[in-house]
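Bench notes, afternoon.
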Amino acid sequence: MKTQKAVSLTQFISKQQAPHPDTTGDLTRLFQDILLAAKIVNRDVRKAGLVDILGTHGTTNIQGEEVKKLDVMANDEFIAALSLGGDCCAILSEENDDIIRVANSNKSTSKYIVAIDPLDGSSNIDVNASIGTIFSIFSRLSPTGSEVTLEDCLQKGRNQIAAGYIIYGSSTMLVYTTGQGVNGFTLDSSIGEFCLSHPNIKIPKDGSIYSINEGNSCDFPQGVNDYISFCKESDDATSRPYSARYIGSLIADFHRNLLKGGIFIYPATTKSPNGKLRLMYECNPMAFIVEQAGGKASTGLNNIMDIIPEQLHQRVPLFIGSENMVNKAEEIYSAKPI
């Protein structure tokens, strides 16, 4: 039996010809910093039930959400790893109010800005459901050596040079893109390396899964409820009704739909008229990934990656997944968006 040679993430990135002029060796080093923190977080997640890192921290983040203990640990680990590497000049974290300017970066060369949700799905921590880390990488607009500006950080999703997520589930997996398709790497704990396991991921154009918290349907726009009704109708030609699958963690629901085909929706509601998910830390990176995999991401009316951010913690509605499913959802939603 022929044994397939394992390809590590570092080997893969170094061999991949990047289309962006900034995606050189220093991007590989930046990924190594992210992976170091991810391995530490993975270790802590795996032993969460054995040490005092479950439960709440007793504080709230900038979003007004209760902070979990593991949230704080993950945030600290990623900030420390990115700060020590020298290739990151600024960090934007969902858990921090303002820009974290990296004081000890190599100011003559450091040019990358990392936006990160250190631990997405933290409400699932205490019940042992899948959680993860989402990140996005930009190149600064201002000259290296100067102080990072707000304009550097508030860039639209089209300017991303890389994005990815790490899911801490039954296995620990990294999925990322640098604009040349999407590849997945699974952590082999025996050698401590992320190895290529899912090359050239493509999301099916059509799917049979819809993911949305129907418990909030009384607060949804009519167009969203109309789409839910469409998903439940029986129609052999379109393989309906679709299956409802909702974990309550963007990263877990997105990962399943990316591999199997489906749509994830977190719409605007009467309680959250601008949506609830963060543009910079969640929606932009997932939009970049899904587009590179052949899917689509939208607010229901506009493409996610064309939005010019106005605030670091800006929220937007999200319709993301298989292209034909998102197109149909947009068609139905746009008829009655309120």
